[in-house]
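Risk register update: the risk that structure generation would not scale has been downgraded. Supporting records follow, first protein first.
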Amino acid sequence: MNVKKEEKPLKKVCFICAKGAIEDVLATLVMANGAVMEGIEAKVFFTFFGLDAITKKQMNKLHTATVGNPAMRMPGGLPFPTILGMLPGVEAGVSAMMKKGMDKLDIPPVDEFLEMIVAGGGEIYACKMAMDMFKLSKEDLWEEVADVLTVGEFYALCGGENTQIIFT
């Protein structure tokens, strides 16, 4: 017996960004921007080191993680020996190469990406616990952050039929 289940379109997607490396933040921003461009309600919750993406002093200074990143590749696709990431200047160099590649693909900087998401109707939130832990205030954050919420308050925004929560 083959019963077809009726598919319902995604209405809302809620992202949780807990990492501050440029590749992790961009994954969140690309997906959130894609959602708003498709007419899907998008909410993004930044916690722990992901807060760097919405902290005015850090948001456009994010780096690529070179130590402990098993997926890191050198030009040509060769594995990147993790120990090299500990050498002075390597992380900055790898981050510069990553940003150069992003520029070639016309990927906007973090602040512009966030502006695009908000302009499309997306909402940006900061985690209260992480803010308290890192001794940050709302004034430290990008101006368009909608609010500083507890995890429970964020989950309350994520209810409804056809909603997904994605941890990036």
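Supporting record for the second protein:
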Amino acid sequence: MNTALFLIIGIPLIEIFLFIKIGSQIGAFNTVLLILTTAVAGVAYARYEGFNTLKSGLNQLVKNEIPVYEIISGATLAFAALLLILPGFATDLIGIMLVIPFTRKIILNKFIKKKTKNVKNNKDFIEGDYEDISDKDEKKF
């Protein structure tokens, strides 16, 4: 089954199931209030962490270093804010895990290790040496 199709169908089903289960325990009004509260608080905290990441990235640039982690972390925070805005408990849980710096580092490290392992095993490249011949051509004239 295609992963995108599974996500398009699976995520709303999980969210509906959680709405029904939690709504039956705490009531409909409290469920809606909880969803709105997590959205507002999550986006506010994602904004705060986003500014911290931006400040850290600027500090890296001042030191003449490439802010790779900060760029990836910023994109992750944008995705987390999107998940927090979407109504639902499962998306809120994933969004909160991506906003918190400790869990964000753990999740990003798992993805980075997985991707670097795939790159190391990739044999679609050719190694070689090169020689700059433009200097040799200029000496002839």
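The mean pLDDT is 83. On this basis the risk owner (M.S.) recommends closing the item.
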